[in-house]
């Protein structure tokens, strides 16, 4: 089954907002095993939207449209789709009641007349209740073609899709689709693919797809089968083989688990506390850690010691070390990690110092970063030479720091 995404809104074309809906829906459609060949963005223009809709219906089985379901004059999606597919509009009493109820429980007690436009629905369409707004979702089916209309705000679109559209599309799929995510840190996309070439070149079912992230590679292994159990059995040997090839480079096989979540999980498991000592990353590492629910059980304290004075004052980095080797050095990173532990009494400290740019420091190039991890009276220091702009270098530093922390725990506790 072929699906196409159509995003409606002039604000998208102007770049006023980022179109996160397309990314979200594309990922969900991939999970469902739907084929997707086109994604289109069109402004709030009746003629152009009509042309886009006609083209999409001609080349796809299902067209998912987002946006343009609001109460204003330029919200045209429903009207244009109904016209193109030959549906007449009529007032839906159920939706009118829901709009009334929505305003009854809001700070706006008076209902503007234009909101009643949202109660007009294509005759015979499936109306999807929107529990987070006034615009209902709609599903129109005709001559083997389907149009699914969803409100633009992500806070309305996502729950509506999860609760009602995903199950609807799942039922229309003749096969069961099941995916397993494998997340890898420590190797680039080309390295990962090279190690999997024999599996990828010979794949049919399951299939392996690689996704490059910042200093990470994610693999999605997908199987199709007539039942859930059969799909699981197809996945098992492939996932096992991939895990055996990459060992500790695999930090999780859970879709929802991030690298920082995996780190916090390990810290909790071994009842360890952690402190961060950051220079070029400016608190990004501690920010990632405290984003994880329950991090308060393991996170002791975070230092942002950007200046040499701060490194000396808070982390007890020796003045002679800074003078002889510089702030960006293996020696300074090591002393930062030691200082973080001694200052807070934590079990572990991860420290970062580097040159994020855009200007180099003497003979030391932009992208030079040292990351140190103290654990069990030992300090491991890694030297990195990152490429990219300032933001990219800092992002890569954060990922590598979290990964070094993770690997240090694994090495010391045989997890």
Summarize the structure.
This protein has 415 residues and is α/β, with parallel strands linked by helices. The chain is built from 15 helices and 17 strands. Helix 2 runs parallel beside helix 6, helix 3 packs across helix 4 (77-85) and helix 10 (259-269) packs parallel to helix 15 (390-413).
List descriptors.
single chain, 415 residues, alpha/beta, six-stranded mixed beta sheet, five-stranded mixed beta sheet, 15 helices, 17 strands, 25% strand, elongated
Q: How far apart lie the N and C ends?
A: 43 Å
- Give me the number of helical elements: 15
Q: What is the strand content? A: 25-35%
Largest sheet: 6 strands, mixed
Provide the helix percentage.
Answer: 40-55%
Give a verbal description of the structure.
The protein has 15 helices and 17 strands. It is of the alpha/beta class and 415 residues long. A 6-stranded mixed β-sheet has the order 2-1-3-8-7-6, with helices on both faces. A hairpin with a 2-residue loop joins strand 16 (368-375) and strand 17. Helix 3 packs across helix 4 and helix 10 (259-269) packs parallel to helix 15. The two termini are 43 Å apart.
